[in-house]
């Protein structure tokens, strides 16, 4: 398992949870962003800076993900691509994406986009609450406990 993070919009508190978990279980963790993201000194944690542009980080992650990898993202199209490639996707709120939930979320996203395009004020997502952080940490722990160590744990990142 390799953990990939869509880091441009990932809250710092979620990154901190990921840093601690990656060190604890020694699983490779890569943060991908179009800006510099600092990481703690570690053998298993690194960051990759990609070019600027719409969805460049998402495209990079989608190209790198392997079956069994975990991607942390709030981006529903990226989550759909990850699930389609046999990976797992988890939102920063601790919501796992599955083939079914991704289809539902894509439909809802498209519906909300249509509303916004027609002038309806829909508002944005609620701020990350302590219960969201706890849900994320709990779900991450469950996923890490179920992982099967393989040679991909030793797979170097790009």
What report would you give on this structure?
By secondary structure, the chain is an alpha/beta fold. The chain is built from five helices and six strands. The chain is globular.
In short:
With 158 residues, this protein is α/β, with parallel strands linked by helices. The protein has helices spanning 12-25, 56-64, 76-84, 99-117, 130-146; strands at 3-6, 29-33, 45-49, 70-72, 88-90, 96-97.
Q: What is the average of the pLDDT values?
A: 87
Q: What shape does the CA trace take? A: globular
Spatial order of strands in the largest sheet: 3-2-1-4-5-6
User: What's the alpha carbon Rg, rounded to whole Å?
Assistant: 16 Å
Number of strands: 6
Number of helices: 5
Distance between the termini: 15 Å
Profile the largest sheet: 6 strands, mixed
**Strand portion:** 5-15%
Furnish the topology, listing elements before pairings.
Elements lengths: L2 E4 L5 H14 L3 E5 L11 E5 L6 H9 L5 E3 L3 H9 L3 E3 L5 E2 L1 H19 L12 H17 L12
Parallel strand pairs: 1-2, 1-4, 2-3, 4-5
Antiparallel strand pairs: 5-6
Key traits:
158 residues, alpha/beta, globular
């Amino acid at each position: 398992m390799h953990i990939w993070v869509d880091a441009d919009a990932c809250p710092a508190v979620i990154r901190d949870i990921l840093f601690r978990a990656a060190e604890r279980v020694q699983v490779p963790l890569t943060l991908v962003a179009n800006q510099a993201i600092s990481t703690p000194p570690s053998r298993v944690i690194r960051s990759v800076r990609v070019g600027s542009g719409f969805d460049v980080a998402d495209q990079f992650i989608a190209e790198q993900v392997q079956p069994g990898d975990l991607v942390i993202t709030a981006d529903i199209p990226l989550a759909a691509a990850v699930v389609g490639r046999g990976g797992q996707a988890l939102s920063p709120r601790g919501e796992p994406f599955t083939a079914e939930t991704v289809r539902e979320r894509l439909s809802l996203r498209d519906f909300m986009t249509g509303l916004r395009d027609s002038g309806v004020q829909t508002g944005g997502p609620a701020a990350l609450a302590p219960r969201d952080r706890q849900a994320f940490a709990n779900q991450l722990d469950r996923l890490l406990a179920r992982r099967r160590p393989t040679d991909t744990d030793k797979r170097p990142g790009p």
